[in-house]
Amino acid sequence: MLPMHLFQKNSVRYLFTDIDGTMTEQGKIPSNSYQALWDLYNSGIAVIPVTGRPAGWCDMIARTWPVHGVIGENGALAYHYSEDQKKILRYETISEDEHLKNQGKISKIISIIQSEVPEAKIASDQFTRKFDLAIDFAEDLNPPLPREAIYRIQEIFFKQGAQAKISNIHVNGWFGEYDKLSACVWYCKNWLGESIENIKEKIAFIGDSPNDEPMFEFFQNSFAVNNVTPYLADLKNHPKYLCPSKESFGFTELARHLIFLKNK
Fold this sequence. Notes:
It is a single chain. The protein is α/β, with parallel strands linked by helices. The strands form 3 sheets. The protein has a 6-stranded parallel β-sheet. A 4-stranded antiparallel β-sheet has the order 7-8-10-9, covered by helices on one side. Helices cover 35% and strands 19% of the residues. Strand 5 and strand 6 (87-92) form a beta hairpin.
């Protein structure tokens, strides 16, 4: 990884960003992150959050934040508020039929986790999710679960044929061939009007945890806030650049740097 200040391209026009642990500070969106969103918006750099957070949150984010749109549930869905049509446009990877078929398998996984890792809890935002199951290990649990319990939860998902990713607060599991990157590919083609390969140099990504690894690998303009460091040993593909600071302050550093380069 290289220090963030060594990134000197002025071509970035789109910023895909994680939310939790990247834009947040101790679980909240502070004023510096929200101001950075507005600064990016006003500079002409479109922001698209790419998060493990649920559909219900994403509808609100797409409507009320100064963003182009949002990708949620680790790539299961994407929402974009159309100014022309004055309504939310929705893309969902999983059909309703598939969703209904998966509910029984999700219920089985819940039972296994409750039996084998009883200290784990279903995430408090699960009621607003459409497609994945989120298991809390650090958001509302104090103290957080130990590392071995987190990886045990992920292994349970894998053994039941599901995909699973670890964020800084949840283990998210789902049935379906999608992830954050595949949703970004769809988003670029359909809502930015370009193949992702054609505009790759115009895109930057910033994240903080293992569920961001597909993005770290794919994008040459990939960044991480400094709190990624505990996860580096578990990542085969590291971000290309590292921000000086953790969480929201690292996000703000990158926003300022991209705006400076664009206006240079």
